[in-house]
Fold each of these.
Amino acid sequence: MIRLDGIQRVFQVGDQAVHALRDIDLSIGAGEYLSIMGPSGSGKSTLLNLIGLLDRPSAGIYRLDGGDVTGLSDEEQARVRRDKIGFVFQFFHLIPRLSAAANIELPLLLAGVPAEQRKTRVAQLIRDFGLAGRETHRPDQLSGGQRQRVAIARATVMEPAVILADEPTGNLDRATGQEVMNILEGLAASGVTLLLVTHDPEIGNRASRKLRMVDGRIVADERASS
Amino acid sequence: MNTADVLRFASFSLAGARTRTLLMVAAMAIGVASVVVLTSLGEGARRYVAGQFSSLGTHLLIVFPGRSETTGNPGMLLGETPRDLTLDDALTLTRSRAIRRIAPLTVGAALVSTHKRSRETPVLGSTAEMLEIRKMSMGQGQFLPGGDPRQALPVCVLGDKVRRELFGNQPAVGEWLRIGDRRFRVIGVLAAQGQSMGFDTDELVIVPVASAQMLFNTSSLFRILIEARGRESIEHAKQDALDILAQRHDGEKDVTVVTQDAILATFDRILRALTLAVAGIAAISLSVAGILIMNVMLIAVSQRRQEIGLLKAIGAAPAQIRMLFFAEAAVLSFAGALAGLVLGFSGSFVIGRIYPVLPSVPPWWAVAAAFGTALVTGILFSVAPARRASRLDPIESLARH
Ligand SMILES: Nc1ncnc2c1ncn2[C@@H]1O[C@H](COP(=O)(O)OP(=O)(O)OP(=O)(O)O)[C@@H](O)[C@H]1O
Ligand SMILES: [Mg+2]
């Protein structure tokens, strides 16, 4: 499903080159549940952004669903992102002036899905994610856990094959984080490929496959023997 | 994303930043309103002048002594004074078949008095034809009698205001009064009609041309008014007048004949140019509004980096981001232009109420141009902000708060 070959990412800061990713080779099958851990600055977010097509590698090839997506134009990458990838962020990134329902609806709007379909799809997710009664609330009227649930609903509304979550519980207390993890794991169980970056070993250890990154390299890649 | 969705999203963004939106709508509205108001003033002035000319009478030509400077006459430069126009000059003009009637004009000012009151008044010397040529109408009595214009009859016709001031509520027709050192009998009073080409006929006293020449001790005329037989014969009449007078003046072309059409056309050109000029000035204020919109939109782009980054992350293509910003500019300019039209039309309505003589209606082209310019400037000036937004790096935009 996802195949990275010899991926490098070098940032030029002044006259200094920062190697955020060095020689990453990685293959992820459809429906895998992966956690990525490692010290701060080890390149976790950079890797996730590359897989999510928000960033381009300095070298190497990235294949998604068998096709090379490295050389796609911005417009083409945007379409792949829209149709196949869902992002969940540490800071939710909801649009403050829009209601919960409108935030969830946004990807459908961008994809040009007819209003009727949009409405039923959003209503479905609101029910599934326990947000009933909150659909007209704006983000600042929601709790952190509710905001993250809205953000996850937005990430899944296009039914993407891959969900990329960068420290989704990093801004939540333990109990609320637990709730959010349950939702994400529910998605993983339903066959979505889930990549989860986290600093919390307890959360990271629940994944069926665990990557450990240090200094831009993958230093460990363990599969749970279940 | 269909158009309705784009516009709805754009309107939401605008509603989300109310002060900013109102400010930009106001800037746009003021620009559009000033185009509408200023052009309606200019157009009003043009129509006012046109109205004044048509009240002067139709197919009118005016002869005055001296060559018009614009054609340049070496004789004049050498200090030659033009020959005066005389009453005989005027009367000879009726020989032309293109000329229906003529009215010689002599003007001066004199003290007009009854035994009770007196006032200084402009006095016009002319003939019976004047009434028809200038399309004046009588209030009471009669106008100057026909007959030989060389005869200095002691009769006069009063403007309505002069009558009021000299006679009050007493009947004027049939009374005697004094103009300068001569006695005249009032035979008629003009109907009140107000201003016409600089002469307020309400303030005039009209006497036979020969009487006026005696009063002012002159044998020359101030002007000769000519009425051509029809619209087609205006040029013909002009040529005939020039020929006849040149013949009488020993071949010297020392008079100028202007047609009402020519004067009107000149005024029309001047006023149209003026209207265009003020429209241009107002259009500058529109582009200032455009620049304001660009500035505020650029600020908005940096304030909304996070939102733009998010839109990109969830799959908005650069073209879609640009489209969203264009739509915002379009909605904004449309609202501004609409508000401006309302403001502008109310403004010119109010002006119309205050100055009823000015037919203050903005010309349709100015309204269309103002509206179009508002939309185009709004969208044009949003190109830069929209491009900047579509080029934002999503990772960076999402990272910084
Ligand atoms: N835009 C950038 N310009 C320059 N250097 C960058 C940029 N983005 C990331 N880096 C560098 O790349 C390295 C990897 O960064 P990255 O954000 O992927 O780390 P991370 O593992 O996600 O860390 P954290 O756990 O703190 O989020 C860091 O050294 C960082 O300083
Ligand atoms: Mg990170």
Note: The CA atoms of residues 14 and 21 of chain B lie 6 Å apart.
Amino acid sequence: MSIAALVLVLLMLTPYVIGYRIAFSDVVVTSGWLLFAVVVFLSSYNLRKKLTYPPLLKSSTWLQMHIYLGIAAMVIFLFHTSGKVPTGHLDIALYALFTLMVASGLFGFYLTRTIPTTLSSRGNEVIFERIPLFRRQIKDRVEQIILQSIEQSASSILAEFYESYLMYFLSGPRNVLLHLVRSERTSYRLRHELRESDRYLDEQDKVLAAELDDLIKLKDDLDFHYARQGLLKLWLFFHIPMTLVLLIFLVAHIVLIYAFTYGGS
Amino acid sequence: MVEVNTPVRDKPKRWDLPFSMDFTNEAERREMSFSDLNDLFAKKPFSEMDASRFPDSLPLASIVANDTRIRLYREGDAIVRQGDYGNSAFLILDGDCRAIIEGLDPAQLGRQADHSKSLLKSVKGLFTNALAPEVRDSRLYPQHRDKAVFDPSGTVFVQDVPNILELSPESYSEARHNIIPEGSLFGELAALGRVQRSVTVVAAGPGTTRLLEIRWQGLRDLMKYDNGLRDHVNELFRQNGLKGAFQMSPLIQAIDLDEEQWDQLLAEAEFETFGSYDWHGTYQQLRKRDEDLLTQEPVVQEEGQYPNGLLIIRAGFARMSRRHGAGEYTFGYLGIGDVHGLQELMHNVSTDDNSPIQTTLRAAGYTDIVRVPTRTFEQVIYPAMMKTWPDGNFPEKFLGETMERRKTAMSTRRASWRGDRRKREFSGAPMMEFLAENRYINGTATMLIDLDRCTRCDDCVRACASGHNNNPRFIRHGKIHDHHMIANACMHCADPVCMIGCPTGAIHRSEGGGEVVINDVTCIGCGTCANSCPYENIRLVNVRDQSQDDALMVDPVKGKAIVKATKCDLCVDHHGGPACVRACPHDALTRADMDDLLDLSEWLNR
Ligand code: HEM
């Protein structure tokens, strides 16, 4: 932590130190190039992930540098733009892109530090790609139960319950947004509803209903993992492609600046 | 009451599968005939055994009929290979054998001679990895000589063993070797204790060499009821193995013993085996039947008893537990070289007290121990310890695990500010219980994943695949305790039961770091290793041929797909250590040596 603070303070001071020694317009140019270098370094994390060899520091070390430099980039950016929104179309786009980039980074950082604990404290550990398979297995088992109930008892309470609630609940990932805010409202309601109908069931159906209750919980936990693991993947789907767009815009920005400022004179 | 749909089966019995029928290759299976047995009982040592000393439940003839098998080797065939883990001993019936002490190339034994790839090759691999799974270069695979080689008598030669004579006649003749004459017994030490074979033995002819292979269960029973054999084997161990066993203990290494003291130690030490040598099989069965493992583990030394000596673990593992309420709780375990009872003995010598043992020691699966009797400890080891550390400040690492030491080690660990969940002790009794119960204590590079940090990004899996021609060599899935997962990755066990019985020596310890690796070229896909691994960390895969558009390779004779065993090799081929650890962005993954409890608890409690 202390190293991080030191790095930050130094980076924040850099423009001042440079500023005293060189003219103001040079501060913009220097901070611009510095920012470019930092962004290129931040982007290269993607390459490091792909290049398992040669062994270039651990990925966790890279991520630490990434986060510190990502925040540093934000500070340099403020100096570079003097905190003002620019006027040209390209510059506005670049401004927006960079802000989004940093915002998505911070958001992702928050997610990677908070979601894992919630995953390990609820439901079974499950590999994301296998969730649809487990979902189907649960659905199949529920359907078996409903068929069994229809065969063995005169009442159609469980079958109706299936038709009006479970069929929809089981046929895909549900309550994604609710799971993201860790609300268990829907599953609570479902299970409450099931328990309410318990008193109308005969003994055989009661046994089946108890298993249904377990399965609803299982499916709900699966949805929970789907939503939260999914979000952990989804944010990177913004963060990574945006990196490429940002780099393209940055290069265009630099080319234009040099073409008009220096090339023109 | 038997439930309606419980399948009713006979309880498996010891001799359901005689040793002579226990071959993966059908052609080699042949029951011992009456004349084989007659023949054997006319030879030493069987001719000298007194059948009446054997109990009715274990008659001598049945032991020989069920626990031995006759094997034929041609000149130059390797019978045992240096570095193998064996579970049988050999008696030479006809012909001679040669023990090759040095001078053989690992490749001649079916091993992979050199593992490390150049950095450039590693990098190049990233760009040339195959698209299909498990693609191989079939040109590397040797074309087999005739599959089954029959003797006129109808017996089958052992196949798939490397023939050292054929592989390289020059270096065979240059190698330093001793003749083992007809009638000798060899390989008994490696069969009885979990130690590697110390020499390579090849058949030396002339012509066919006929051997009787005796599996360890039979050898143990023969020794139990025949004093001659027992004394012979024990004497061999006292001469060849005991000093080595002592030297595995850091305590004995640290103290200075003169020749006389050594002699006394070697003469008076006793050795014993607890538990089952093939613990992995028993363990798998017990787990299936959901039995309480702890109570099934044989007691080596019990809490409350008078210490009858200093115990040194020679092979296997032992669990330390303490009575707690109606049960026992585990607080640690011991591995090779660790000692038990030292603190109590030292206390008793220095105070003239009679303190009993403070913790129960049980064989976690299988434990070989060397016991230094209390009197020998008092006369040899304690004085030597006092000479080495005159001020009585014995370094902690030699003193062995004790309850108190663990407690202080834990309580000095910093309390964390990261919330209640983090403040809990993650390497306490429940974790020890989990590790011992699941036999994870066996691992020297166990993959641990901290699920509170893991973002399930699978960077570890991808990095692993990228170093192995696009094939991940582990599964990010496994048993979980609290928020720590032991993933399904080879743990590179201290006691590598997977290596027992590999017919070609393909699965072996690498020369450099001792990692357990499989030589893909000599692996015949028999599945012995995969079936033995109690952790299910070895996978059999169908391989594809890169020169045939990645089509599945098929054995032209049998028409069956060619199978190879695969597992994590700890990236021995590459520089930089295990790729999985380096690839984790959140430091959530480590490869832990379970022998290093302090390191482990440090990681668990970060
Ligand atoms: C201009 C600014 C930034 C650029 C160009 C950038 C670029 C990248 C790239 C290319 C990756 C690699 C993703 C992959 O291949 O898996 C990445 C990952 C990541 N970045 Fe950024 N980033 C920026 C700013 C930030 C900031 C400010 C933060 C947070 C403080 C941040 C946090 C992260 C995190 C947490 C990861 C993911 C690590 C993982 O779980 O795999 N980034 N970023």
Note: Residues A 39, 42-43, 45-46, 49, 63, 66-67, 70-71, 73, 101-102, 105-106, 108-109, 112, 236, 239-240, 243, 246; B 455, 457, 585 surround protoporphyrin IX containing FE (CB under 6 Å).
